[in-house]
Amino acid sequence: MNILIVRNDKLGDFITALPACYILKQHIPDCHITVLISPINQSIAQACNFIDDILLDTGQSTTMLAKELRQGGFDISFTLFSNTRVAIAQWLARIPKRIAPATKLAQIFYNQRVLQRRSQVKMPEFSYNIQLIQAVFPDINTQYPQPLLQFPKQDIEETYQAFSERLNVQHPVVAFHPGFGGSSDANWNIDEYITLATSIQNLTNLDIVFSFGPGDKAFHQAFVEKRGDLQAKIYISQGSVADFARLIASFKLFISTSTGTFHLASAVGTPTMTFFADTLFASDKRWQGIGDKTLQHNYMIPQDPQARQALFETVQKNLQKLIA
User: Fold this and answer.
1) Which CB contacts under 8 angstroms, 24+ apart, belong to 307-312?
2) How confident is the model at residue 144 (pLDDT cuts 50, 70, 90)?
3) Does 22 lie in the same domain as 74?
């Protein structure tokens, strides 16, 4: 069976699709799974042995995308998150069975629609993705290993060794990744991140690292200007997303807002401390990581200034306890 799975949005969104890909491959071992994804997620898809092939959504025209899909000869498609363009392209490609959530105008181009109402957040995003697979295979085993995103041990060790030599890292790493991204609309400011890091810098056998991605130039500059006496190393991520995943797999703790890097850390089994908006849609109830829930320490940042300050003090105390 030739299967297409569509999740062509951001990094965190694609990671929430990995359990669905895995359980489908386990259910039908001889099936051929192709994912239609954004280019940023290519290296992650290549690292998954339960994904056989990759199609990149580079923004090509609907007719061009339809042509590429037609060449794939797919028997069935699961569109985990739909838009009109990919819906029409699949219809034009004449994929016999097309499954998607029953939302938006795009649903008319699918011939099996599943009513989900994701805005009600009755389950995490990755569970909604699995639910679409269950609509066709109701007896499928929905269990998956944790961590799900795994790399050869030697690759992880070599990546961490190069990182340690470059930054003179000698102790377990607590990483702060303060940048925005994904669906996050709440975060601490750079001064608050510096305060959090300062509160633990006197703990022994610990290296503090502030990491910044390609789009975090403003955060990086602000950190350099405001860090004061904070003894923290700076890491500017290089290479692919999979390269960064291999690196953070060795970290003691990864601290960030709710964005793709959080989902990456959870997927590789790294303990996380994560900050979410105080709304149902953006909460950890929907956007929790796919990894072990006991390793996820999630907080929802309120809009009220006094409540926000109270939560910050709680986070500061809990962080000290967590790594002491």
Assistant:
1) 312/188, 312/192
2) very high
3) yes
Which residue from 222, 187, 200 is spatially nearest to 311, judged by alpha carbons?
Answer: 187
pLDDT digits 0-9 by tens, 196-248: 999 999 887 999 999 998 888 888 999 999 999 999 999 999 899 999 999 99
* Confidence category of residue 119, pLDDT binned at 50, 70, 90: confident
User: Is residue 144 situated within a structural domain?
Assistant: no
User: At 84, which CATH number?
Assistant: 3.40.50.2000
User: Hey, how many other C-beta atoms are within 10 angstroms of the C-beta on 29?
Assistant: 7
Domain that holds residue 299: 153-323
Per the CB < 8 A criterion, the answer to whether 54 and 252 are in contact is no
For residue 59, the Cα-to-chain-centroid distance in whole angstroms is: 21
Query: In sequence order, what are the residues at sequence separation of 6 or more whose Cβ sits closer than 8 angstroms to the Cβ of residue 51?
Result: 21, 25, 33, 34, 35, 45
Q: How far apart are CA 16 and CA 20, in angstroms?
A: 8
Alpha carbons 133 and 127: distance in angstroms, whole number: 10
Percent of the chain's residues with pLDDT above 70: 98
